[in-house]
Design a protein that fits this description.
39% of the residues lie in helices and 6% in strands. The protein is mainly α. It folds into three domains: 139 residues, no CATH class; 195 residues, no CATH class; 64 residues, no CATH class. Strand 9 and strand 10 form a beta hairpin. This is Reverse transcriptase domain-containing protein.
Length: 431
């Protein structure tokens, strides 16, 4: 709560809030049906204008009833409901009786309603109001939790490309102004800001590393969603991502084969035309994945992982070693490979020499497969999403934002200003 009202994440719905005169829900659910009811119920009582009868003038929730005979006023009052702010008592009983005789519907002391989003009743206690408030807050928290776990509710930096210049520079400037009010030589160098406290630093996280960890975590969510829903169909927010990966990696591979792609250029600097279809966001995410996370990848691939690892950098429609075994049989030779390549219309080099060179390049993929794996394959699609991704003994399922940040952050011990202390050499390594 802030200034007596829920914060934006706790607001239900969007647009104009309940109680506003232009609230679409207020008009559609209440005013419009009520006006249609009046037109049908009292169509013969309205004001005559030529051959037409008009019973209501309305704009938004402002309504004016029209009668050609004021003796029908009592019929109009039958649609009026009176809910008192104070409980009816013996002193106010005559007033209640007069209103009922007039034709107005009068609500008793036990009546309750919702006025501008707040429950109200003549005898509604504070405890009852609290129960209504708790139920509403529970609904808001449930909705907030749902949004925070979906793509719509994620922090904008995790789903939007944030260029290295611009926003990041502004945040860095704010940090500098907060930490160092003075521009003199006694200001703490930036190298010490991001150094862990155990090494004498402040332990801050660089803005770029914080953004990269959020974005890589989003990539992990996409991979896990593909694992969970590979047979029944992936969620609607994952499907366009996989389709984009498939277009970008073509003709080298399919869908999650891009996790092995050599995306070595950042969209903020030297952008590679090869990965232009990824656009800036996923180009940046896969750049961080390839250059900073895959370096920490533990070599724990199973035989099935080695069989489905993407070959890349070829246009012979050979996406992975399993494709080679499928077209060449249990033994891959130059002769069997040449026969397959002749069936491809766009393949020009089909001779024994070309096949021998191709197999020499593929030896790093075929060599580790000493024994062909036997048994059911883990999956029939999205092969690379099911690979055993382990980074520094942390599996993909365990990669939370803070763990990703600890993997990609590089801390360099700054040089100590020993000259200010009158020392020429640093302390011994054993110190």
């Amino acid at each position: 709560m802030f200034n007596g009202r829920p914060l934006a994440p706790f607001e239900l719905g969007a647009g104009v809030r309940q109680g506003d005169h232009l609230s679409p829900a207020h008009f559609v659910l209440f005013i419009e049906p009520f006006l249609n009811f009046l037109r049908v119920k009292i169509q013969d009582m309205g004001s005559l204008c030529g051959s037409s009868t008009h019973s209501v003038i309305s704009f938004a929730d402002d309504s004016t009833g029209l009668l050609h005979d004021l003796r029908h006023t009592k019929d109009f009052l039958g649609f009026t409901v009176v809910l008192p702010f104070r409980p009816w008592s013996a002193a106010t009983a005559p007033l209640r009786l007069e209103l009922e005789q007039l034709g107005v519907e009068v609500v008793g002391n036990s009546g309750r309603t919702k006025l501008l989003g707040i429950y109200y009743g003549p005898q509604l206690s504070n405890a009852d109001r609290l129960q209504h408030l708790l139920a509403e807050m529970q609904a808001r928290c449930f909705l907030w939790t749902h949004r925070s776990r979906t793509l719509r509710g994620q922090f904008s930096a995790s789903v939007c490309h944030v260029p290295a210049t611009g926003f990041q520079d502004q945040v860095s400037t704010l940090i500098s102004r907060f930490l160092c009010k003075s521009k003199s030589n006694i200001a703490l160098p930036k190298d010490w800001w991001f150094l862990p406290p155990g090494l004498g630093g402040l332990g801050l996280t660089p803005v770029s590393d914080m953004i990269h960890s959020l974005q890589v975590h989003m990539l992990c969510k996409v991979i896990l969603a593909a694992r969970t829903h590979s047979i029944a169909g992936v969620p609607s927010w994952v499907e366009p991502v996989i389709r984009l990966f498939d277009q970008a990696i073509s003709p080298w591979g399919q869908d999650f084969d891009i996790l092995y792609a050599p995306v070595s250029t950042s969209p903020d600097y030297a952008k590679s035309h090869r990965w232009a279809q990824l656009e800036d966001y996923w180009h940046s995410v896969l750049f961080v994945w390839n250059t900073r996370l895959r370096k920490k990848l533990a070599r724990r691939q199973s035989s099935f992982d080695k069989l489905s690892i993407p070959i890349l950098n070829n246009e012979q429609e050979l996406f992975r070693p399993s494709d080679l075994y499928q077209v060449c049989g249990s033994t891959v030779t130059c002769e069997t490979l040449s026969v397959f390549l002749r069936t491809l219309q766009h393949c020009r080099s089909t001779g024994a020499s070309a096949c021998s060179n191709l197999l020499a390049r593929l030896h790093c993929f075929l060599g580790p497969l000493k024994v062909f794996p036997i048994g059911p394959a883990p999956t029939t699609r999205y092969f690379c999403a099911f690979h055993d991704w382990v980074f520094d003994d942390t599996t993909l399922e365990e990669l939370i934002v803070s763990r990703i940040r600890s993997i990609i952050v590089k801390c360099i011990n700054p040089v100590l200003p020993l000259s200010r202390l009158g020392l020429d050499e640093g302390p011994p390594p054993t110190m």
